[in-house]
Amino acid sequence: MDLFSSYLLYLMLFSISLPVVFLITYRHKSSNPNLPPGKMGWPIIGETLDFALACQGGNPGRFVNDRMNKYSPQVFKTSLLEANMVVMCGGSGNKFLFSNEDKLVVSWWQRSMKKILCFPSVFNETLTKISSDPPTFLPEFLKPEALQHYIATMDSMASKHIELNWSPNREVTVFPLAKKYSFALAFRLFMSIVDPEYVEMISHRFQILNEGFLSVPIDIPGTTFNRALKASKFIHNELLAIIRKRKMELEQKGDSATRDLLSHMLLASDENCNVKSEMEISTQLICLLFAIHHTTSSVITFILKYLAEFPDVYSKVLKEQMEIAKSKGPAEFLKRDDIQKMKYTWNVANETMRLTPPVQGTFREAITDFTYAGFTIPKGWKMHWNVNTTHRDPKYFPDPEKFDPSRFEGKGPQPFTFVPFGGGPRMCPGREYARAQVLAFIHNVVTRFKWEKVDPSEKVAYNPSPIPSKGFPIRLQPLQNGFI
Ligand code: HEM
Ligand SMILES: *[C@@H]1O[C@H](CO)[C@@H](O)[C@H](O)[C@H]1NC(C)=O
Ligand SMILES: *[C@@H]1O[C@H](CO)[C@@H](O)[C@H](O)[C@H]1NC(C)=O
Ligand SMILES: *[C@@H]1O[C@H](CO)[C@@H](O)[C@H](O)[C@H]1NC(C)=O
Fold this sequence. Notes:
alpha+beta, CATH 1.10.630.10, 5-stranded mixed β-sheet, 3-stranded antiparallel β-sheet, globular, binds protoporphyrin IX containing FE, binds 2-acetamido-2-deoxy-beta-D-glucopyranose, heme, transmembrane helix, oxidoreductase, iron ion binding
């Protein structure tokens, strides 16, 4: 409801300036005769309200889908998040955006997001540096070679989390617990922080921050946006304190100080030998934690949901995971090789991300005028790609509503049609981390339990990642050596 009420407030505030805006919109329209089809909706807010309502109705893809049917299956114009926007659809739309990064388009984040995350400092360096190399510390820390050192930690933390929070209970609610695990893991791997209460407290602030993203950027007490800004400031101050403490430790202990992402960031210098400022590091950490906050936990939750719905899929996953479990000693943790062996389980994860992708799509901005599908896209206009324009299209995925992990066997989907992590140079740098984390968790759950849904009619809500509306409560049945 919060999202909705802030839009109403927004509408009321801006209705005062309607006549002026109409004039501006009118002039703009007449000077660009060859824009894609579509309608711009209300002044300033455009069709954002319809978009928000579609999200609240549990069907964000509907907004895009209705307009594809009405105007064009390739491209249409609208106005979203205070910007002139073109939605590029289908495999060819994705291909165009992902292969023209830094040539015709660059990443774009809406104003409220920039303000909450304290932009431009963080993405500034990556966005303005027109080149395909992403920030140097990220690939270093997130690439498979570095990740292999963390897989044992992912496994041991999943195991501990389940013993503490799942084993003594017959009934658990999956989403909040998956989030607790994801966040605890990130704090441990990035900053070596292990106090669960502290992590929980910061995680709660991220929840507030997250709600601010699709909100209208009106900064007055009581608005969602205002609360998000306050939460962001709070998190920054906490992180700055952590950063300063570590800086002192590094100065005093040198090589024997803690080694993790934070130390790496503090020690790393960029090409011009500038050590990153404390504020930069804090913002980069916030962006990373934000990218993790909902995504991996949403995937874990929906995998468990599909496994409850499809016993044959569950059996195959169990078989694969038991084979891996049996090949290991009692106190031996998962390694990179084991993750590679989880092929079927990863296909299940892919099929889960096809039907309930954690990220619905992102935005780009045109850095020059160009033509697409015969239409002019003017410089400065924003573009949106959306997972649903391909993930549920029968042309790419026959019988699209059916959950069928075997789609990912063999050659798998056509390029640019399965895009849960985006594509091109800006494709999610955390995808290997996400894969290892999700698989380590599923390994630990599946080898211990079978489960069933508590509420078979539970709906899915979007905020904007999909989440079962009650957090997905399940009843657990413990397994003994892989059997009930
Ligand atoms: C299943 C989980 C995840 C999904 C589905 C996901 C999806 C995405 C998508 C769609 C984008 C935008 C790509 C684009 O605009 O083309 C993105 C960006 C990003 N993701 Fe992820 N992500 C996940 C997990 C993670 C994790 C675990 C991390 C960090 C460890 C991470 C870090 C980032 C960062 C830093 C960006 C911004 C990259 C840039 O703009 O250069 N993500 N992610
Ligand atoms: C996604 O697209 C399909 C067809 O392409 C449509 O039927 C569906 O309503 C859309 N929305 C969602 C959330 O799947
Ligand atoms: C962001 O980049 C622009 C252009 O390179 C620069 O002028 C500005 O100072 C940068 N902002 C911050 C906070 O680094
Ligand atoms: C599963 O998804 C990942 C990430 O998008 C992709 O790289 C991989 O090729 C997919 N697996 C198959 C078998 O298509």
